[in-house]
Amino acid sequence: MAERTTRSANKQSGGTLADRVTTALMDQVRGGVYPAQTRLPTEPQLADQFGVSRTVIREAISRLKSEGLVETRQGSGTIVLARQINTFRIDALGGQLEVRAVQEVRSGLESEMAALAAARRTEAQNEKIQRALRRIDDAVADGEDGVAEDMAFHRAIAEAACNPLMTSLLEFIGRAWHDVIKITRSNEARREDFFRQVESEHAAIAQAIARRDVEGARQAALRHMHASIERIMAAEQDQ
C-alpha cells in the first residue's frame, strides 16, 4: 500500500515536492499503513521511497509533527502518535494580518522560550541549538530553502527551555508556523539584506543562550520576531 501511495504522490501535479510527500505520508499514517506507536522509515529510506532529497523528507516530517501525527524520540526515530493532537491551522496564509497575527503569538512565546533556554539548557541542548543554526546555513548553501532547518532551530530552543507545554504550544500553531517560516525564508532568498539580518538575529539568540544570558536571549528573540514582521511587510510592499 505504501508503494502505491508513493507512486500516486509522485504523479501528482499540484504543490511542491514537500507538499506531495506530506500528503502521501499523512494518508499512510491515517490509513493505518503506519499504526500508532510504530516507527516511520528512516530519512534515507523515505528519500529513496519517494525519490526526493532528505531535506524534502525533513520538511514533510516537520509538517507531520506540526499536525500532531508523529513525534521524534531520541534513539527511537519518528513515532506515530496514538492520540493525534488537534492542531490550530491556517490553511492559506495569504494576507498581512494573518501572517502578523501568527508572528505576534510567536513573539511572546519564543522570547520566553529563549530566556528559559538560557537559564536551563544543558550542554547537550546548547550544542543541539548551535548545530541547528549551522544547518540552516548549510541548507541555504546547498540551494535549499532552509524551512525545515529554521524550524528545527526554534524547536531546539523550545526543548532547551525544559517546559513541555511550551514545546506543545509551538507545535499547536502547527501549519501556520510552518507557512510563516516558509514565507520569511522565501523573502530572504530574494533579498540578500533580509538573509543577512536573519542570520545575525539567529546568531544573537544562540550566543545569548550559550552564555546563559537570560535577558539577552529574551530581547534577541523579541527583536527577531519584531524584525520578521517588518520584513514581511516590506516584502509585500516591494511586490
- Bulk shape: globular
> Which percent band covers the strand fraction?
under 5%
Largest sheet: 2 strands, antiparallel
What is the CA–CA distance across the termini?
Answer: 44 Å
Corresponding CATH architecture of the largest domain: Up-down Bundle
- Biggest β-sheet: strands ordered side by side in the sheet: 1-2
> Mind telling me the CATH class of the largest domain?
Mainly Alpha
How do the helices and strands follow one another from N- to C-terminus? HHHHEEHHHHHHH
Mean pLDDT over all positions: 81
Can you lay out the helices and strands and say which pair or pack?
Blueprint (H helix, E strand, L loop, with lengths): L1 H10 L5 H14 L12 H8 L3 H13 L3 E4 L3 E4 L15 H25 L2 H19 L5 H14 L3 H9 L1 H17 L1 H19 L3 H25 L1
Antiparallel strand pairs: 1-2
Pfam families: FCD, GntR
Keywords: DNA-binding, Transcription, Transcription regulation
GO molecular function, one term: DNA-binding transcription factor activity
Describe the structure.
This protein is mainly alpha-helical. It has two domains: 17-80, Winged helix-like DNA-binding domain superfamily/Winged helix DNA-binding domain (Arc Repressor Mutant, subunit A); 96-238, Four Helix Bundle (Hemerythrin (Met), subunit A) (Up-down Bundle). The protein has eleven helices and two strands, in the order ααααββααααααα. Strands 1-2 form a two-stranded antiparallel sheet. Strand 1 (70-73) and strand 2 (77-80) form a beta hairpin. Helix 9 (174-190) packs across helix 10. The protein is globular and about 45 Å long. It starts with a helix and ends with a helix. Mean pLDDT is 81; it is low at 3-8 and 90-94.
